[in-house]
Design a protein that fits this description.
GIY-YIG endonuclease; Rossmann fold; 4 domains; about 550 residues
Length: about 550
Amino acid sequence: MRAEDQPTGTSSAASEFVAFAFARVAIPSPLYSLFDYRWPAGKKLMPGVRVSVPFGRRNVVGIVLSGAQHSEVPANKLRSVIKVLDADPLLDERMLGLLEWSSRYYHHPIGEVLSAAIPVLLRRGNEAGLAQRETYELAPNANLDDLPKRAAVQHAVVNCLLEAQGSPVDASVLATLSARWRVAVKALLEKQLITCKFDQQLPFNKALETGPTLVDEQQQALQQIDAAAGTFQPFLLNGVTGSGKTEVYLRALEQVQQRGQQVLLLVPEISLTPQLMRRFQRRVTGCLVSLHSGLNNSERMQNWLLASKGHADVIIGTRSAVLVPLPRLGLIIIDEEHDGSLKQQDGFRYHARDLALMRARDNSCPIVLGTATPSFETLNNVQMERFKELALTQRAGDAKPPILSLLDIRRRPLVEGISDRLIDAIRQHLDDGSQALLFINRRGYAPTLLCNDCGACADCNRCDAHMTVHSARRRLRCHHCGSERAMPEQCESCGSDKLDSLGYGTERIAAALSDAFPDVRVARIDRDTTRKKVRFKNSWI
C-alpha cells in the first residue's frame, strides 16, 4: 500500500470540498514514502488532520497530507482509514509546507518530521481540545446552618468560597485545602450549598510594571524592527552583555501585540525559560505560554493548542517551539542565536534558527537574532547584506562592565579544584548579602574514573569516550551516546580496588561548596537537575 513519494497538493483540498477516493498519509516510521488509504465516502478530506490507520499489525496515528483519485496500488489491496481524529486541521497549509521542506532539506522521513511537530498526547490520538476549567461558587441563598459542625474540610471549602466574595474559585485552589477536598465538595453539592461550573477560560496575564527609558541605540533598533513589520527582514541585534537586548524584545513585542499579532521567542536552554517568563509576566498584558521539556505532557499539549489556535499572544520556548503553528505570527525573536543548543541532535535533526528564518520568510515577518557573540554564519549574512545589524555598544542604565581578573593557582592549596582565594572571594560576597555564580563546563561528579595500578580508564562500551562518574547515583554515564552502567568496585582491567575520580564536574563542585559554606544554600543547575519539572523548580535559587 505504499504510494509514490511526490509533492502534495494541499491548497485545493483545503479551499473547497472535493470527494477524494484515497488519502495520502504520513506515518511516523523510518520510511520516506507516503501511504495510500481508502478515504471514508462523503467525508471532506483536509490536509493536516490526524487519522487512525492500520499499519502492519497495529493501528497508528498518521497525518493526512493530500487526497488522490487514483493510486498505484490496486484498490482491493488498500486498507481504509479507521477514524478521522480532528474536525479541523492541526497543521495548516503553511506549516505543512515548511515541514515538507524540512523533510527534504534535512533528509528525514516526512512522517517522523510531522510527528515531531505535535505534542506527545496528540501523537497518541488524544482529543485536541482545550481543558475545561472547573470552578465552584456558593449557591444562591445557601443555608450554611446545614453544615455539620465536625465537617472540618466542608467548613474550609465554604470559608474559601466566602473569602472569594462571589467570584468563582478554581478547583486547584480547593485542592490545596485538604487531600479529601473532593469528598467534601461532593457532600456540599448534594446539599445544594455550592454550585459547580465547567468553562473554557483562557489564561490571561496583566502587566505589573512599565519599562525603563530606552537609550538612543535601543530606540533606533526598535524603530527599525517596527518599520519592517509585514516584511521578511532578518536583524542581528548585536549587543554587549547588559546592553538591554531583552528590553528591546519587550518593546518590539508590545508593538506587535498592538497590531493583533503573535510573537515567538526562542531560547536555547530550558534553564533560561523561567527567568524570562517571570520578567515577561511583569511586563506583558495578554496570554503568555511556555513550551519546553520541563512541562508534563498535558501542560505541553494545552500550551501548544493555545498557541496553534491563536489564543496565545506570546510564546516562549526552546527549539521545538519553532514547529508550533501560529496563525497570527508577526515577529520571531531568537535569544542567544549562536548557542549550539538550538540544534536538535537526535531523531529529527534540525537547526531551530534556520527553521525560524524560513518561517519568518513564509510569514513575511521580521526576525530578530539577539546575541553578544554572533555565530560565523550570521556574521557572514550581515557581511553579505542579507541581515541588517543593530548594534548595542553600551550597557543600559547604571550597569558597569565587570571587573575581570586571572587567578594563578600554581603552588596554591586547592580543595576539590577550588583555591583558597576563590573561597575567600565567595565568602566576602556572601557576607555582603550578594550571590556568587560559578561556571564549570562539565556535569556529573568527575569526567574520568582511573585505576591507579594499571592506568586504565572506564571507557564506554559503545563508543570511544570516557565514562563520566555520577557519584550520587553510583553510576557511570557516557555523555556522547547515553550509555550507562553501575560504578565498578574494582578495575575492570586488573581487578585493583584503587580507583580515583579524576577531574571536576558540577556535582563535585557543588558538594565542595556545600562543605565550605554549610549554612548557605547551593543550587546546582545542569541537565541532571533540570530534566524533571519538580527538580527543575527546586534547583533555582
